[in-house]
Amino acid sequence: MSRYIKNLDFGLRHRSLCFLVLLLLCNAMVLNAQHAAEVYFLKLSGAIKDGKIDVEKYKDSQKKATNKKINPIKLYPNIEFQTFEGFGGAFNEIGGEALMVLPKDKQIEVAKNLFNVNTGAQLVFCRTAVGSSDFGIDAYSYAEKADDYNMRAFSIKREEASVIPFIKHAIAQNPDFKLFASPWSPPAWMKYSGLMDQGKDFPEKNKLKDEPKIYKAYALYFSKYIKAYEDKGITIDRLIVQNETDANTAYPSNDMSVNQMSKFVGAYLRPQFKADKINTEIWAGTFRVHGRIDALELAANPENLALFDGIGIQYTSSKYIQDMNALYPNGNTMHTEGNCFNGKNTWDQAATRLKEVAQYFNYGIPNYCYWNMILNETTESGWDWAQNSLINIDRNTKTVTYNPDYAVFAFMSQYLVPGSKRIANYSKDELISVKHDNKIFVLLQNDNDLPNSYECQIEDGEKQIVTLPAKSLAVIVLNI
Prior knowledge:
Blueprint: H1 2-35, E1 38-43, E2 55-57, E3 71-83, E4 86-90, H2 93-101, H3 104-115, E5 125-130, H4 163-173, E6 178-183, H5 212-231, E7 238-240, H6 258-275, E8 281-287, H7 294-299, H8 302-305, E9 311-314, H9 318-327, E10 333-337, H10 347-350, H11 353-361, E11 367-372, E12 374-376, E13 391-394, E14 399-402, H12 404-415, E15 421-427, E16 432-436, E17 439-446, E18 452-458, E19 464-468, E20 472-479
Parallel strand pairs: 3-18, 4-11, 5-6, 6-7, 7-8, 8-9, 9-10, 12-13
Antiparallel strand pairs: 1-2, 1-20, 3-15, 13-14, 15-16, 16-17, 17-20, 18-19
Helix pairs in contact: 2-4, 3-4, 5-6
């Protein structure tokens, strides 16, 4: 009898041990499943129909590729940097005119694909021009009458035809939509040249007159612009004082030194805004690096810097962003314009966008603003300069073409969303790593003709092989 009991006891213990081992194995499998990486990707080729992109889940994401060297990706979700404010793009008169040619339902469809926060490119923080940009139909301002110092003839009527309806489409899709604005040139009569454009031919005269009555009139001009747009239901959240402060171009431009900008803002523009109870932020820029380092000059001058709510930059390198951040720690910065290219709208060009976004975001800039959202069938400016765009609209056939750049940003915007926190990573590849909603998202690209594998790890956790398909923009998604 005692022998029977012993055998029974052993059997029960053996079964209990087996059950415990099985339970541990099940828990481990569940845990591994919870932390297993998923890969979603966009093929860097093909046509985009009706603004819908083909995002696929890669079924072989955990299958090791044949690449000999597997680079590590190590992620540190507890080391946080800036919060992403969102993607954006630029409104312009040429694009607005093309959009207005479409039937109303098609206009709404295009706007949804650009601005709705649940689909498409999800552009939430965009740019517009104060008067004509280089993608105005021609040069114009809101104060065309010479010596109109009191702005009695001020009018935004021209923009009621296309620019304002274009912007209102964005607001209809997203009531929380934000907008920043900058002039390419002051009204012609405020400049030594007497011209908004042709600065390339008269660089020494392509400047705002250094006269108190001109400064005062220009400050009033900005105030009236913001109030006129407000009357149309459009809020200008930020005003950036001058586009490309070092530019002397065939299209509208204005060479404005840091000292002149600071003098104008401190003595005229801020007092005007205060008197008119305008809450729009005043930002310095937009600065680029093209023979001058205006952003660094401003950042190195605490007295001038204190006059501005932040600094806007475009067409600059990581080196200068690092230098600016060193001079302006914890300061407000933003990206204001993406690479314009040449109007060819190729996939090879679109394949550079992740690296371009990373160049700014990984160095502390909290947003990215594409340039022309819409252009017409010519792809050209009023000064015959062809550039890329997210969308082209043929005014003759009323057809809408979604370009490769659109597909790339529609993909990235699904994972790099406003509110995402940039987190630290170790990697030899160009990538962006963020976290939100208890997940980590790693945006990276495989330009090779074959799948490429990485060894992915969260801090000191388990390492796992993650594979990206060939010729793709991809995201690795991991649970935290």
